[in-house]
Design brief:
It contains 27 helices and six strands. The protein is an all-alpha fold and 670 residues long. The strands form three sheets. It has a two-stranded antiparallel sheet with strand order 1-2. A two-stranded antiparallel sheet has the order 3-4. It is found in: Nucleus.
Length: 670
């Protein structure tokens, strides 16, 4: 007797989860959409695990299947045997069959060990979004009814321009001819360049320190006098600084040139590639080479490189880290007797920024922090002005010892103390082979991270020593550290709030709720223009450099710049993945009803948490058309939020809401 006759004898309500017919899925009413009957195909039994069946996902029928493994819940991958099917021992099954797989444990108070490699680490957005079982088919576009609309949304990506080359920053400069002078002639006038450099120092150097301001001022003066004195490596770094400066310069300033900020950004990125390609970055790399590559990583993180994908970040960062290791930046400067104290300090500064970028990318891509064996000392807690010129080069005259205040380097010294802990956590939670962290160790790491963050915030709230560190800059640095730490805390507690363990560890649930809200409040704060904020105060205090500059070159280079309408939107773009992860975690806590079940005076009400989520989603909408990754992120978050809204209202996910989701996602400003 064939399978169809066997299955026809089983009443529909008796069919267990995991067994269904292809005919019933395609046409459950036994008729076509027009209401006319059709010739029934032979019913074929399709065997899938119960989680994949519930999520309406394709199952590869492994034990456990790859989807359950990638979601971090291999122990939940179970198959229900059909009524009447015999077990291997010949007896009747009791209903649930759990495959015996090496390394898989049954659910217990501790999270199960991963039986196979996780395709995406715990910090990857897919791992987080996959926890929202009802929404995942719509996020992924696998729901058959939603799929046409999903394809329409993806079709909007065609509106985004992309570069012919995806090898940035190592691609060919296709806009320019192979002439150095022609490339330099394509740059804007000196006053615009000065403004862009000023914008770069005010923003990016506050969190990703790479360049000494006074040394760069001398180099820029040399550029105005005769650009032939400067190497291609320096020019590549210079153009990358200009490209990033475009992201924070008020639009009206660039509009005065007759070109948009986006046009100028593309020009500078092409020029940077041109000069890097013609330099000896591979055979004779220097600190300037590393700076240029770090700025290229930042540009990719900002999504200003058109046509970029997340995987490109991993490959580029791998190259940068290996280059730094080859140059021994990860080693103590005392091991090298032939370098000056100034060069030693610059090496320390660059190495901390490389570590920061590596950690950020590991969290964004769900991969591991690449290099952990290093003994480099942290930068000195001094101001840039403590380096002075002499006939023998730059010498250090630190005046910070008795100050008790913050300096230009205070942020980096605190960051250097946090990175080893955060890196160890990220490497553990994103590892495809390491078991989940024991809960007692999670608590210890949580406490340690919070204490270090509190200490750093206390120090950064001190009055500055000297004129180089305005309070607004230190406040931004403290907020940035807060984002890094709380994103790490979300990853640390992931295994104890995922579907397998949901509700069993109250402290982890509360920690995730708190960290999500801290991140989103920071996100919303960065999008709210402050009343009295000097957007470029972080680049002040170089009056000596101004005095030495010619009137046509760097006059006003470090003077305060006119405030941008969104002074910290650039930082929001740089950390957009951190805020996206926080939104997904908050959506999951709202879906589980944690704000109703957990009464904690430190937590807001459910309605207040929902309002914070909606405010962040609106900010995401306003930035969605910056790049394809921004757009994809917004689509996923919009679908998740709409599914949550439907479920909270007791409505089916697919229904009238499908048009609302499409309308909301399609309304992003172009």
């Amino acid at each position: 007797m064939d399978d169809s006759s066997d299955e026809s004898a089983i009443m529909e309500h008796e069919k267990p989860a995991g067994f269904f017919s292809t005919f019933s899925i395609a046409d459950p009413d036994g008729s076509t959409r027009e209401g006319h009957g059709r010739t029934q195909r032979r019913n074929r039994r399709v065997f899938v695990c119960i989680p994949c069946h519930r999520r309406k996902l394709k199952c590869d029928k492994a034990q456990p299947c790859s989807r359950c493994v990638s979601s971090g819940a291999p122990g939940e991958c179970v198959y229900q045997q059909a009524p009447g099917q015999k077990t291997e021992s010949g007896g009747e099954p009791e209903g649930i069959s759990r495959p015996e797989t090496h390394g898989t444990r049954q659910p217990s108070p501790e999270p199960p060990r991963v039986a196979g490699p996780r395709l995406d680490g715990a910090t990857h957005w897919r791992s987080i979004a996959h926890e929202f079982e009802e929404a995942w088919p719509y996020i992924e576009g696998s729901d058959p009814q939603w799929h046409p609309r999903y394809q329409q949304l993806l079709g909007l990506e065609g509106l985004f321009p992309s570069l012919p080359s995806t090898n940035f920053p190592f691609g060919n400069a296709f806009t320019f001819s192979q002439s150095r002078s022609q490339v330099l002639e394509s740059l804007p006038p000196p006053q615009i360049i000065n403004t862009l450099i000023q914008s770069y120092f005010a923003a990016f150097e506050s969190t990703h320190r790479l360049i000494h301001r006074e040394e760069f001022s001398d180099e820029l003066n040399a550029f105005w006098i005769s650009n032939g004195q400067l190497s291609e490596q320096w020019l590549a770094q210079f153009c990358m600084m200009l490209a990033l400066g475009c992201q924070t310069t008020p639009g009206r300033i660039l509009a005065s040139t007759g070109r948009s900020a986006e046009d100028w950004t593309d020009t500078f990125l092409d020029a940077a590639q041109f000069f890097l390609k013609n330099s000896s970055y591979f055979s004779n790399p220097s600190l300037t080479t590393v700076r240029t590559l770090c700025l290229s990583v930042v540009a990719r993180m900002m999504e200003i490189v058109k046509g970029g994908e997340m995987t490109h970040l991993v490959f580029l960062m791998g190259f940068v880290v290996r280059l730094c290791m080859t140059m021994q930046l990860h080693r103590k400067s005392s091991l090298f007797t032939d370098i000056t104290p100034f060069e030693a300090e610059m090496r320390k500064r660059i190495w901390v920024t490389v570590q920061l970028l590596d950690l950020d990318i590991a969290m964004r891509t769900g991969t591991s922090y690449l290099y952990r064996e290093y003994d480099a000392d942290p930068p000195l807690d001094i101001n840039d002005s403590d380096f002075q010129r002499s006939e023998h080069g730059w010498i250090v005259h630190p005046r910070w010892a008795a100050s008790g205040g913050i300096t230009d380097s205070t942020f980096q010294t605190r960051l250097a103390g946090l990175i080893p802990i955060m890196a160890e956590i990220i490497n553990t939670v994103n590892s495809p082979t390491k078991p989940p962290i024991e809960h007692e160790r999670v608590r210890a790491w949580d406490s340690r991270l919070r204490q270090k963050l509190q200490d750093a915030e206390s120090v950064l709230s001190l009055p500055p020593f000297g004129q180089n560190v305005p309070p607004d800059k230190a406040k931004t640095q403290a907020h940035f550290l807060r984002v890094l730490v709380h994103r790490t805390l979300l990853a640390l507690h992931y295994d104890y709030v995922c579907a397998v363990r949901a509700g069993q560890f109250r402290d982890s649930t509360v920690s995730v709720m708190q960290s999500s809200l801290v991140l989103l409040r920071t996100h919303n704060t960065w999008h709210t223009p402050p009343q009295n904020m000097s957007a470029a105060a972080g680049a002040s205090g170089a009056s000596g450099a101004q005095a030495r500059a010619s009137s046509s070159s760097v006059t006003g280079l470090f003077e305060p710049l006119e405030q941008s309408p969104l002074p910290l939107a650039w930082l929001s773009d740089l950390c957009h993945d951190d805020f996206g992860a926080a939104m997904l975690h908050l959506i999951l806590t709202l879906r589980r009803g944690d704000f109703d079940n957990i009464k904690n005076p430190a937590l807001p009400s459910r309605s207040r948490a929902s309002a914070i989520l909606q405010q962040s989603l609106e900010h995401k909408r306003l930035r969605a058309c910056r790049s394809i990754p921004h757009f994809r992120e917004y689509v996923g978050l919009s679908v998740s939020a709409s599914c949550l809204q439907s479920l909270s209202a007791g409505e089916p996910i697919f229904g009238a809401k499908k048009e609302n989701v499409y309308a909301v996602v399609s309304s992003v400003p172009h």
